[in-house]
Structure formats: structure tokens, C-alpha cells
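[Solved] Which block belongs to which protein?

Original post:
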Amino acid sequence: MNQAYLFAHMTHQDYGRLYYSVSTDGLHWQALNGKKRIFDAYRGHPDICKGHDGRYYLAGNTNDASPDIDIWVSADLITWEKYHTYTPDLRSTPDYAHALQRIGAPKLYFDEPSREYILTWHTPHKEGTKEDPERYWASQRTLYVLSKDLKSFSDHPVKLFDWDMGTIDVFIRKVGEHYYAIIKDETYPTLYWPTGKTIRISRAPSLTGPYSEPSAPISPNFREAPMLIPSPDNQIWYLYYEQYPGVSYGLSIADNLNGPWYQASGYTFHADWDKYSLPASVRHGCMITISRGEYDALVKRFGMVNE
């Protein structure tokens, strides 16, 4: 059973900083710490995983133009300390000679079977132009490195997917015998690419692939920053995604990651119609399961905002 959940996120007014909200059912969320930052040193799109030693690891970067990926560590999700800074050599990626020195939304996943971390992020290979700003986004590709301890990493970044399409905000989860990559299709939507700017899922037999062609869209167009959590009884999957920039969150629900998915009702301005709710102005980050003891400790330390 899943006892509680943490949503580590930024806000619309304070982009790229760390805030917390919590839930006991995965559907109704309340902000912590008076809607103030959890700690000031962090920069990035928050992403947390539980690691090889039972501690939590948090990835971020100062901004997309920074060459560095910062990793923080915490035993209790309350106090964070700097763990390591990793600087990938993007131009060393095979078959990606024109990669630009830009790192978007680094994300961590610890793979229990291999006792290995995979660190993913997106990097473009074309600058945008005034006439075609979208070519920058369409050129984003998801890269990864592997690590046993988040101190030393595999020799060079590698493209995660064989297919030639823009992808951002990718994270990986193992469910059953398969690995799933939840992605944002970053090609601009048209009549000839109707899946553009939606959340899709790809499946693989191993951590690094090969990953299948991505699924049909799980979200409407112009959604990003997906997050995936299981329901308290582990029978249902909740897949959240942001309608950007900071408009609202959507939620799609399925009983397995292969679908079918349906969109839950939310943000109707009629509370009795809504199946889920989040604090106002939250922006993307990550959702993870936590114990009831960890939930109680977070609420005790930071205090809950009742809206």
C-alpha cells in the first residue's frame, strides 16, 4: 500500500525553485511551508528518486545554458546537502555531433535490478530563428548516462531513442517486466503531426532500450512535465501533466501503463465535480510515494497550508 505522496515542484511566480505539496490519496494536494521555498540553494526542475542507500537524490541545474547537473542528497526530504556536480560532454554523444551545450530538466531513476542509476535530460542541436523558433524545440533529443553511485558516470551521453523526433521531460519507470519511458512529444502539432506537444509512453525490455514507437497521446496537445504515481492500493496509475504555461494540471488514469487512459475531471470550478485538486500556481516537478512517517515529519517540520 502507498501511504502518502510528495509533490516537489516550482511555482509560476518563482520558476526553477523548490516547493513541496503533499497528499494521502494521490489526488488531493496541499502545499507546505506557507507556500515558501523549501531551501534556497536549489535551482532546476525538481526531480527526486530514492537511491541505492535508502537516501533521496535530487537533480537540478542552474538553467538550461549551464553546463552542469547538480545532485543533492537527503536522508529525510527535509535537509538537503550538495552531493555531486556532473558536467556531461555533450559533443561526445555518438551520432550527435552538433549538440548544443544546453541541458534541460535532468531526471534520475534508480533501477533496482541492475543497481544502476540512469540520468536523463534533453539537449537540442539547432538554434531557433525568428522565422522558425520551433525548430529549436523540435531538435531536442533525450540523452542519458549511467552510474552506480552518482559520483562517476558512463563515458559519454547516449541518445535514449532510435526514432527521429523531438522529446523532452522524459522519465523512466520499471513496472512488471518492462521499462516505460514517459515522454513529451516536442514536435509542433499540425494536421500531419497531430501528436505534437502531447504526453506519450514508450516501452522497452531493458533500461536503455530499445524503446518502442511511442503510444497514442495520453494528454491533449500543449501539455508537458508528466508525473506518474500509483494509487494507494496499487491498482490504478495517475499520470499528471501541466497545461503550460502554468494554466492548470490535467490527470489521466489507467489500470496499466499500456492503457486505455481516460481524463479525470478537474479545474471545473465546481468542487463536487472535480476528482482531483492541486494548490494554485504550482508548476512542474515530480511526484513520489513516501511513507506515512515521512509525510507526518514533513507536515510537522513545514506546516500545511489549508485552502
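(Second protein starts here: sequence line, then its C-alpha cells.)
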Amino acid sequence: MLDGSGIDAVIDWFARAGRELPWRASDASAWGILVSEIMLQQTPVVRVLPRWQEWMRRWPRPQDLAEAPTADVLRAWDRLGYPRRALRLQACARAIVEEHGGEVPVGLEALRALPGIGEYTAAAVTAFAHHERAVVADTNIRRVLVRCVRGEAFPGSTFTASQRALATEVLPAETERSVRWNQAVMELGALVCTSRSPHCEVCPLAPHCAWLAKGRPADSGTRARTQAFEGTDRQMRGRIMALLREGPASRERIAQLRTDEADDRVPRCLDSLVADGLAVVEDRTVRLP
């Protein structure tokens, strides 16, 4: 099991090497931190940063986003991917306004009750915004823990009960130290203990790492598979959304997005966007909601 010296080493490393990001600033609001956590899901920091800054300039409070036209919200989301997250974030803002007086609620249960807020996001907001003890376990943290403690290369795509137990056992008992540990180990996974090219030579956990001690054994089949993008429905949905962000488009114009005559994705993807509440069809014209 990872001992206190290993935890201290990671916290000390973060104090020296952690990135200065606006949602980590001492004056960052709970709302701003919640927005960052939603945006950062499956999206790298370099893409999120300018979008988060613009988002917070336009909608610095939940009430601001709750009252915004949905079409403007989807345009502002731009190419962050998975635009349903933007709809859920607006629904979350409305729930915060209607049920919590415009303030992000405190406590895992209250956070989990908000639209689009799952186990990880509730824990992250609890730790990083409200500075309370919570088991935060994103992909980066899970990867660090299974490598260091279990000697496994990858944690797999699912947050298992055994991984939850491991993250809980490692989490420091002291509230302030637990928050710093969550921040530090997440950053370590993002910058050092990466998926493809881990920098073990500069890792503060190197003396404690079971995976390194074993000679960094190859993946045993637990590595999360990367989904292909080219030619997928997700790619076509993105193309349709990019067109609609420019303004309403005719069905005929959308049909021109086909890559060839055999490409049958356009009608299927348009129907799915309508079903998800991301597009509206009026006669022969398609627009953002």
C-alpha cells in the first residue's frame, strides 16, 4: 500500500510542478470549477482553457447560463465534443437556480441530484470547490494507483469496486491533505504517469511504484481501447453541428456532408441530434434549438 512518504512526495511535487490553471486559482468559484470538470471530461486542457475562459466571461453565474438561449450555449461549446454535455450543463444551471438559490450545493448527495452530475464530478466539486474530503478517481488517478500499488499497466475502462476501495484506502484522513492529494495525483497522471509515455525517471512515486519495480510489464489486456473517429456517426454528428452553429441549414445542404453516395450517416445522425435535443427541424430547415 502507498504510505505517507509517497503521498507527501506527490504533494510536494505538485507544489513545484503543478500547472497554473484558472479553475485552480484561489478565487475560482464553485460554479467555475463545476464548469471546468464538465468540459474536461474526455477533452484535453489545451482545448478546454480558451473555451472555459469565454464561457465564464459570458456566464459567470449559474443564473446567467440558465437564462441563455440554448443555441448560444451550443455555439459557445463549439468543438469541445459531446455537445449533449452543454445541454446537461445548462440543465444543471437551471436546477441550481431553481432548487439552490443560484449557489452550487454542498455535499455529494446534493451534487449527484443535479442533472448531468455523476460520481466523479460530484467528488471533484466537493474536493476542489468546497475543500472537503472526497474520493476523486478520474482516469489519471486510477492509472497512477493501479501502477503504483498493484503493478498493473492500465486500470481499464471501468471504475471497479476494487479500484474504488483502493482510492478510498489511499486517500489521506486529514481533510486539507486529502484535497491536496487529489489535486496532486491527478496532475501526476496527466503530466508524468501518462498512458502512452510515462516519465518514470522524474516521477516522485518511482521509489514506491510496483509497476516500475516489475520492469514496467506490458498491458495485460486491461487498457481502455481508443475508439476510431474517422467515418463514425460521431464524426458526422460533429459536422452537422458545425454547420448548424453557422446558422439554419436546409436538409439539402446537410445532405451534401456525405462523403460518397454510399454514406448513409447523414439522415441517421440528423435524427439522433433531433432526438437528443441538439437540433430542430422545421419543414425543410434544420436549426439549433
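Accepted answer:
You had them paired correctly. Confirming on the second one: Residues 1-17+135-226 form a domain with the Endonuclease Iii, domain 2 fold (CATH 1.10.1670.10).
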